[in-house]
Amino acid sequence: MSKFETVIGLEVHVQLKTKTKIFCSCSTEFQSPPNTNICPICSGYPGVLPVFNQRALELAIRVCLALRCRINNRIYFERKNYFYPDLPKGYQISQYKMPLGENGFLEVSSGKKIRINRVHLEEDAGKSVHKNKYSLVDFNRTGIPLLEIVSEPDIATPVEAADYLSCLKMILQYIGASDCDMEKGLLRCDANISLKQTEDKVLGTRVELKNMNTFKGVRDALGYEAARQEKVLERREKVYQETRLWDGNKGATAVMRTKEEACDYRYFPEPDLLDFFVPQEFIEKAEMYVKELPLEKKKRFIEEYKLIDSEVDVIISNIWLAEFFESVVKVYSKPKEISNWIIGPFLEQVNNLASDFNLVKISAQNFAKIIKYFSQGKLNNITAKRALSLVITTDEDADEVIEKEGLRQVSGEDELSGFVEEVIVANPKPASDYLEGKLSAIMFLVGQVMKKTRGKANPKVVRTILERRLKNEK
Length: 474
Ligand code: ADP
Ligand code: ZN
Ligand code: MG
What we know:
This protein has 474 residues and is of the alpha+beta class. It is built from 15 helices and 16 strands. The strands form four sheets. A nine-stranded mixed sheet has the order 2-6-7-10-1-11-12-13-14. Strands 5-4-15 form a three-stranded antiparallel sheet, with no helix packed on it. Magnesium ion binds next to loops.
């Protein structure tokens, strides 16, 4: 057993999900070609004026409330000055003395509360792309709204750090504040770690770790670093306060800069933005999103609806989706069926709508109707999905669409036997294969009948008729 305790604090940067940047109307689109989402404001031309994006503030307030922070309702920005090629203005507009939120906490899976020191708004810098002999800069990212979320050093293990991140991500997605895609850099994490002997009152010297792009990276980097510091301390040497980069391929950290090289940011009030007070209605509006947080909701869903962990995770990945699920349950009390339909066909179709829930117009009643008709056999798997796709963005009455498109499942033997006959005549080979014992050949024939009926036949009934008909022939 190690005689040292690990102490970890995380600084997370998360991109807020706005359509435009924080101080100009350039798009925040991720896939755009380099340097196409830029304007004089976010490229740092002289003489321009920033205008604060209200949506960024709305989302940031949701986050502060979800993290149970005290909100400073005076919004006040400062300039953080430093020189870097991807920072065209030579400063970043940020919050320093007066962060938007302070003194909150985040509950992790174990129930432990990790205190949040501060949550503040700032603008992102550009992106440097290093080539072999030269470097390129893409300014599309400059001015994208970021929220910095700083924890107290309350995290005790690398596993707990990864769990903190996944709980944070769950909340941020749920309240619609960010998509949190680490691969796209929408959620980035710096980790501070030190070791101390249990009886020590003061914390040890910390090292800052950067460049971990996955939860696993965070866990591995912290694990590596804890072991490294322990060895240093056991040799009775000193841990230096420095920034180290994680190299996922090598599975090791290496020094990036030491404390002596740390810069003085010369913060001062941003003169181009007036400070102002957040209207109370603004905060009340955000409160609706955080009444029940994902972990509580998860427990309740598992108990109330008897769903399993992984299903609940999907359904509560977004507050709209969770509420939609519950409103469908209210009109059709089959949570398991509804969950299957939401996680399967419904989300698949929402994906085709660029995952934009704003485009989904179907009512709970209408959705419930389709699921019910499926379970009653009035629609089959294909036609139910088709019906859903026809009404998902319009909320046209499912009954009318089913009627108009002739989607009602055909289960009547009289109606189907004609098709079965035609298919057997047209496909002598699979038919004789089946009779010779190759039982799987019947699936091909079922498929042919489905095709002839444009997906409307009840496949079970088709199979029964086919089997009977072929056996009689023998
Ligand atoms: P800085 O201004 O250098 O960023 P902060 O005081 O804001 O420093 O702390 C940054 C992060 O480091 C916070 O998440 C904090 O919890 C964590 N931290 C501070 N001291 C320690 C320590 N001794 N060991 C581990 N983490 C620490
Ligand atoms: Zn711009
Ligand atoms: Mg800090």
